[in-house]
Amino acid sequence: MTPTTTGHSASLDFAQPEPVDLKSGKYVKVWQGPQHPGITGNMSLELVLDGDTVIECRTHVGYLHRGFEKLMEQRTFIQNYPVVCRIAVPEPAFNEYLYAAAIEAISGIEVPERANWLRTLNLEMMRLASFLMWIGGQGGAFGQYTVANWTLTYRDYVLDLFEEMTGGRIYHMYMVPGGVRAGLPAGFEKRILELMDTTGKLLDQVERVMYHNVVFKARARGLGIIAPEMVDPYGIVGPNARASGMRRDLRKDEPYLVYDRLDFEVISGTGCDAYERAWLRLQETRLCIRLIRQIIAGAPSEGPFQADMPNVLHWKVPAGETYVKAECTRGEYGYYMVTDGSEKVRRVHVRGPSYTHAIAVMERLAVGTNIADIAGLMVSLHTYPPEIER
Amino acid sequence: MILKDLLSPFFVWQRAFEKPYTSIRPIQERPGAPAYRGFHINVSEECIGCGTCHTICQNDAIDMVRVEEFEGRPGDSGLRPRFDYGRCCWCGLCVDICTTGSLRMSNEYTWVTADPTEYHFTAGVEATRWQDNPLGYRRAEGYHLYPPKRIGMEMLAPEEGVCSFDEVVKGYSEVQAKLEADRCVECGICVAACPAHMDVPDYIRSIRDGDYEQGLQQLYRTNPFPATCGRICTRRCESVCPVGIQGEPIAIRWLKRFIVDQVAPEDYSRILGDQPAESSRHVAIVGAGPGGLSAAYYLRRKGHAVTVFEAQEKAGGMLRYGVPDYRLPAAALDKDIDHIVSLGVEMRFNTRVGRDISFRELLDGYGAVFLSTGLSVPSSMRIQGEDHPRVLSGLQVLADVAAGRDPGIGRKVAVIGGGNVAMDAARVSRRLGAEVTILYRRRIADMPADSEEIHEAQEEGCRIVTQAIPVEVVEAEQPGQVLIRWGEAEMVPDPKGGRPRPVLQEHCMHIDGFESIISAIGQGSDLGFIPADLQEQLAIEWGKFKPGDYQHTGLAKVFVGGDVANRTADAISAIEDGHHAARGIDRFLDRDQAD
């Protein structure tokens, strides 16, 4: 039960290790996945073990490839809007927002104030739901299924609110290019504030039961150490980077929507390990609650929520190119879009943080880890394979 | 490791006494949120089958299928959306784009059946248990996927317009036209409603593409009077435009005008193509109105020689002599006519059939004859004193003004009638400086005139007195004056379900003095040029022809069209009659030649 590794050397040696002689009988090669416990989705790890220590890790993706980027080139701009949310299943809202924002940036569409507030609310609710699910996943990966049941239930309560607000629980399809599809239903503010109160209490209990749990501490501390020097060369973003001492958050550094009007500080830590990342995400979850309270207090309850839009049936977005980004739960999420003035998009590239976290970072951090902690390590990087395979 | 960390896991018991999240028994179905995007509801009575749901669906989950019950309804394609729940992703864009608001979603989301073909269903036609569910996703107020409001048209201010015969409608700029063209949802309901079946979505698309030459070609495929119809068409297309159901219809008429305004007349022959080989057949056309010239145009396009006989000194018929310049400037009409004549149509002006040339000569001398003589005889009010010299006909007043003559209406005028001729006569009178009162038997809502015409007449200062029945024209004491006695009418519902009839109230009579009374209550035909024996064969009823297929009559060589042969009596119907007759004449001549 003691940590099997201290995150091995932090030196940035990208050289390929010597191949292991599998025929020697000293090593065992196992496949983990593509079905994983927890929330890591469909992805495979090819692990070479020496005893129960991983000495080599190869990641395999492709089990979820649905060709979204290519698909989008064959559909009109409005027809892509119900497609993009499927790119990251547990966090569809960031895709919706960035797809809309990219089109708006190229077309010069000015989104009404109220829509920006509602979008921010939607994104923070999304972040909250995603973190609640993540806490459950991390707990589950270390055998703490009780906590997983608690937080997943509360995630469902957030989904209930999404259902009221947008008409859908998972795929909200709310942030249409030009604004949002509707205002808030009657009594919504009251219900969400009540949920924030109870969720806050739940998080206190989660903290006591899971974060102060001796087992959790023992297994997560020292696991998957991301040294600060690794952050930039590996393109590590979000809580994974912030837990290694980086104070980077797009909400603060390059504010979008209404984040410049919300009062919050970037949360960071210096522990660099899985425990620090988990701790940081708990604080981020609490930040979501504070931000949602601020948004509910600040959002205008009247006014337009959609810009004057052209007819979407033959909408030609002017030729242009843009990269828009937002801070999702796992860091910088970006959409690179090229349009050629026709009714269809020329190219979309989706930049999800999971690409580097789940492939390059995982392959490095796995080495030297006890096989029993691999699932916990994967969850601690908070990756969603669907966004690797757009 | 500290003691607290060892004890902390035991705090899970803290929540043990909380109310459980899940209910084990009884299993209750949890309803979706009030705005949940569940199964589709279509109120098929409200649906018009425009197909925008089908167009927007990104999964091809919606097919438009024929539903017999709705076929043939005006402004309805007779199609209804059929959903394939094997493809649907419940995004609800179909609900957002629905032009009528008939398509909705219920908040129901469970549907268990052993027969998977049931998941392929026509909502609102096949019974579903959620069809009447009042909850579920609806398009929110203030959210649109196409602009519901029309791009405003710049017009002369009423006080400015009334001072001259300048065109009131100024026309769209290129930017405005493109924005307006962008609103079109391309459903094609308008194509069916247009008497000439013009390719409306196609020519509107050519505006969006900025290809006005292609637009002109599309216009001329079905209508050789686009400059005219772009100004004065009765635009049945707009009355059925689905965008008008929850917003304002596309300004189809003004977009048509915009295309024509973009192309110079000298480019017409290059754009519209070469003249085909001559056929050696010759067709006589009587009447150079929209019907006659439309037939002439399409017959020339087929290579037949055409001679048009016109009693007036210029072509255009009622368009020239019945529609004032502020609605249809002569230059616009001439643009259309000049192109038709330029194809080599022989025009014989000041030639009245029956006076200058006999009808039999036409029958004997030409391979076919097309009659579109229009309605030129004003209807009688059938009241005493109608022959008073101060009682003028609306048609005569308009013709005088069109020809540049003074109609001599005086300073205070009563116009009798509620049709377009009445509105035109009234507004012309305002421009000649007269104070105008319009007397109409029924209510404003019953007026056959275009609602815009009525509105503009009112704005220009015409007073409309409704439910007023003229009873008698009386000689006034002062010279140059005339009195009209009229009574108030009460609207009595028609027991047969027709429109209410005005019934004179004998005790509510009025008498007013005017300098002239302009009667504009309708017009009839003058078919005296046709010999009596032939009239029988032509089956004329109430002064109108009743043509068969291809506008053909009982006389082998004779085809008819325009106001004298249709019920609607408007330019676009006459144009279609001419086009249709040209197809018929072409077939007739070919058959004739083969024999």
Could you explain the architecture of this structure?
Chain A is of the alpha+beta class. Chain A is built from 14 helices and 6 strands. Chain A has a 3-stranded antiparallel sheet. A 3-stranded antiparallel sheet of chain A has the order 4-5-6. In chain A, a hairpin with a 5-residue loop joins strand 5 and strand 6. In chain A, helix 4 packs antiparallel against helix 11, helix 5 runs antiparallel to helix 6 and helix 6 packs antiparallel against helix 11. Chain B has 595 residues and is an alpha/beta fold. Helix content of chain B is 30%, strand content 16%. In chain B, helix 7 crosses helix 11 and helix 9 runs antiparallel to helix 11. Chain B starts with a helix and ends with a helix. At the A-B interface, helix 2, helix 5, helix 6 and helix 7 of A face helix 1, helix 2 and helix 3 of B.
Going by helix content, strand content and strand pairing, the class of chain A is: alpha+beta
> Which pair of chains has the greatest number of interface residues, and how are they split between the two chains?
A-B, 44 and 44 residues
Separation of the first and last Cα atoms of chain A: 38 Å
Low-confidence stretches of chain A: 1-10
The CATH H-level homologous superfamily of chain A: Cytochrome-c3 Hydrogenase, chain B
Strand content of chain B: 15-25%
Number of domains of chain A: 1
Helix content of chain B: 25-40%
Helix content of chain A: 40-55%
CATH architecture of chain A: Orthogonal Bundle
Q: Mean pLDDT score of chain B, rounded?
A: 92
Main β-sheet, spatial strand arrangement of chain A: 1-2-3
Oligomer: heterodimer
Secondary-structure element string of chain A: EEEHHHHHHHHHHHEEEHHH
Ranges of chain B where pLDDT stays below 50 over 5 or more residues in a row are none
- Dominant shape of chain A: globular
Biggest β-sheet strands, sense, barrel of chain A = 3 strands, antiparallel
Number of helices of chain B: 21
Q: Strands of the biggest beta sheet of chain B: in what spatial order?
A: 8-7-6-9-20
Number of distinct helices of chain A: 14
Our Rg estimate of chain A from Cα atoms comes to 21 Å
